[in-house]
Amino acid sequence: MSAELWTRRMSRRTFLGVAGSAALGIGLAACGAKSSPVSSASTLASIQPKIDGDLNYFNWADYMNPAIINSFEKEYGVQVHQTYFDNMSGMMAKIRAGVPYDVTFPEAVEAYQLREGGYLLAYDHSELSSWKQVIPFFHNPWYDPQSLHTVPYVLWTTGIAWNSQKVSNMTGSWNDLWNHPEAKGYIELLNDMHETLGMSLLRLGYSFNSVDPGQLSDAVNALLQLKPSIRGFTSDDEMSIDSGQVWIQHAWSGDFWLAMSRMPASQRKYWKYETCKEGVPVGNDTMVILKNAPHPGTALLFIDWVLAHAAENVGWLGYPMPETDALTAFGKIVAEYPALNVTTEMLTHGVQFKYLGQAGLQLWTEDWTKVTA
Amino acid sequence: MMRRWVWRLSLIPGVAWLVVLFVLPIGFVIAVSFGTVNIVGAPVYGWHPGNYSQIFQSIYVTVFLRSLLFALATTAICILLGYPVAYFVVRFGGRYKGLLLGLVILPWFVDYLVRIYAWVSLLGDQGFLNGLLHTLGMSGSPPLRLINTPYAVIGGLTYDYLPFMILPLFAVLGQVGDSVIEAGKDLYGTPLQTFFRVTLPLSFPGLMAGCALVFLPSVGDFATAQLLGGPNSYMIGNLIDGVFEGGGYWPFGAALTALVLAVLFVPMLLYVRYALRGGAVIPG
Fold it and tell me: What is the DSSP letter of B196?
């Protein structure tokens, strides 16, 4: 009898204790609001282009030709300490936490957010000897007016890859994903909220970055209508193409190239890549120096080095960089697949990823989750 | 008297660990679910119950029920497969008991994701099983779709969590002892009756522990469904992961998480009450 009472009392006490701790967590969270480390006003920092220590490098894994990093280390006698992230969310979380990286690689939208949040160093780009090689579009991009904080890294487009042995009649339109019932079960879309929901918006004639609830609702319904025909959502389109498990793939340009470079010629001759007339999403990564970078001098020299060796990078990456030498080199590499080139026309009149705003982000997240559910 | 206090003190590190690294973070998640974000995506705490307005839609309820179903199926299969293994090793393992148990745990020396990829190469279109069918002249074109199905997901989950079922059963069956089973046979005659009247009831605590250890993590699992599942077999974990890792609106993901926690709290509470009530008492 007393054992019964004890266990009952114990479980209520335990429950209250646990609930109290959780409530404490909520309270601590509310009180311990982290303040942004810096103001958002950007005065030009003057960085001396000379080595001030080893480099803390924070990038995607396998996203730079190791030869460039090695040659930089040899040339300047420093070490490049490499840390990797798997996605933009992870990168942002670490930067918000103030981890002292020197140079990192946010995409355009994240670069905009970091700049607005005051996390990036503004510096005189004439300190970069290779800055004049960068094409004029990036001297004043939408995400960084006057390009005081960023240097563009890699460019990509998003399109459709297909196996012409299994599927024909592709029309250069996003409708090609919807209009091939014979490929049911062998179509994959990108597991990327902005790419896929944005693509559905483009197909309906709306803006790639629309935050109109009605338009988004139409885009969601179109994707839900397509859903029974797809095999799945993938982040590894390269593997999907190489494995032969898809006939039509919503794909990134560079991943298509990499998949082709690994494919035996007998299969490769059937694969094609197209960009779509309703709109070609063009994205780019950037190189930035963080405001709390412990070694901004080394970071500046590193960015300059990468720009100077851009032509070496593009062959290894499969993606172009917006420098004159690199674009020429890339054009030669992908001569077989001219659709993989990113032209100035695409940049100026193409579709760019924009920051959706907090309210827009909430709407998009809820709608995208509905699509993937 | 003093000894009791010493024992209680020894609980402090473990409890502190659980509170700081488990309970407090849950509190943070709930706080984030009522907040919003700033320009760089950092949570801004406040009162925005609107974050919860979307999560009760039928589409999420469907996914959540599907996750519960997958987890239940996984638990059931783990019992059917795991119980015989544990029983066999305990009763007939003899001096090889440790080795056999080691073999059960061996896959866990390999990283979780790599184990799922093993199933991808097993079940894939160009995988081992399809290759076997092809060699036997039994495959058609296109190859048999084994992967990206709900069955592949349940199979992967079962493979992954089976040791969690076998180990508690092994522990509790080990305590039952041959003498008790012999006594049972004397009383009940047939081995089958002995099993259902003596062995099974005595193994209940281990069975319940195994069920809890398999069911609760399976509900939230997402890596398995991501690689082995298709658009109609994604689980609630996939949706939450999609928000946090996919650059989504974190408070929404936190609200979904809170929903999962709230629902899972019920079976968890039931298990804790079962365990606190003492479960079954095992004779020495």
Answer: I
